[in-house]
Structures are given as C-alpha cells and as structure tokens.
Amino acid sequence: xxxxxxxxxxxxxxxxxxxxxxxxxxxxxxxxxxxxxxxxxxxxxxxxxxxxxxxxxxxxxxxxxxxxxxxxxxxxxxxxxxxxxxxxxxxxxxxxxxxxxxxxxxxxxxxxxxxxxxxxxxxxxxxxxxxxxxxxxxxx
Length: 140
Prior knowledge:
This protein has helices at about 10-20, 25-30, 35-45, 50-60, 65-70, 70-80, 105-140; strands at about 85, 95. The protein is an all-alpha fold. It has two domains: about 10-80, lambda repressor-like DNA-binding domains (434 Repressor (Amino-terminal Domain), Orthogonal Bundle), CATH 1.10.260.40; about 100-140. The longest helix is centred in the last third of the chain and has 36 residues, at about 105-140.
C-alpha cells in the first residue's frame, strides 16, 4: 500500500488559524501592511514566502512552523483532550460542555450568611414595630 503525503496548503492553514483567532482578513491585512485582497490571495496560495509567513505568524501569535504543520484533526483532538467534558459533533455544529468548578461548601456558607443577614434585618424590623406599638399604647 503506497501512501503519499499530500502537500500542505499553507494559505488554507493561515485562513484556518486566522478564523480560529477570530480575526478578519482586513485586520490581518492592516497588521502586516498589505491590502485585504492580498491576504485573500495569500490564503488562496498553496505556498507562501518565508518573509510573509513569518510576519503573518507573528500577528496570529503562532510560529511559522505551526502554520506549516497545522491540521484540523490535531486541533480537534487537542480541544477534546484539554477540555474536560468536551463533546465534538461531526456535523456542522459543535458543542462544549463545561463542568462547574465552584466548591459547593463555599456556596452553602454563602447562602447561610445571606440567610443570617436577612434574619437579623427581620428581627430589627420586629423590634422597631414593637417599640412603635408600645409608644402608641402609652400615648393613649
């Protein structure tokens, strides 16, 4: 069985990483000092010269090697392995379950303190009401 590695499409990798970063072509273009159309052409190119690649990598916050070796499958595996409870669907949508990271005992203590403050305010209101009624009765 003869398998040949298909060539990396550097422009497509740049596009994917840019999209993952939530950056528009126009923002990348401004950051590297070219037009949006140039960025579109770069992303459509299979090969990108090293100088441009290094400039783009710096703006995207990754290394040039990361762009060259980018792989969608690796990114999905990374997400699944690094985020506990992550669920990736094979369809057009993806969902991620995030587990709660709060301490239930802390929440219980917080609720107890809230109840204590509320009780103290109610007790104070009752004392004021009793004092008002006693003064009202004495006044008659």
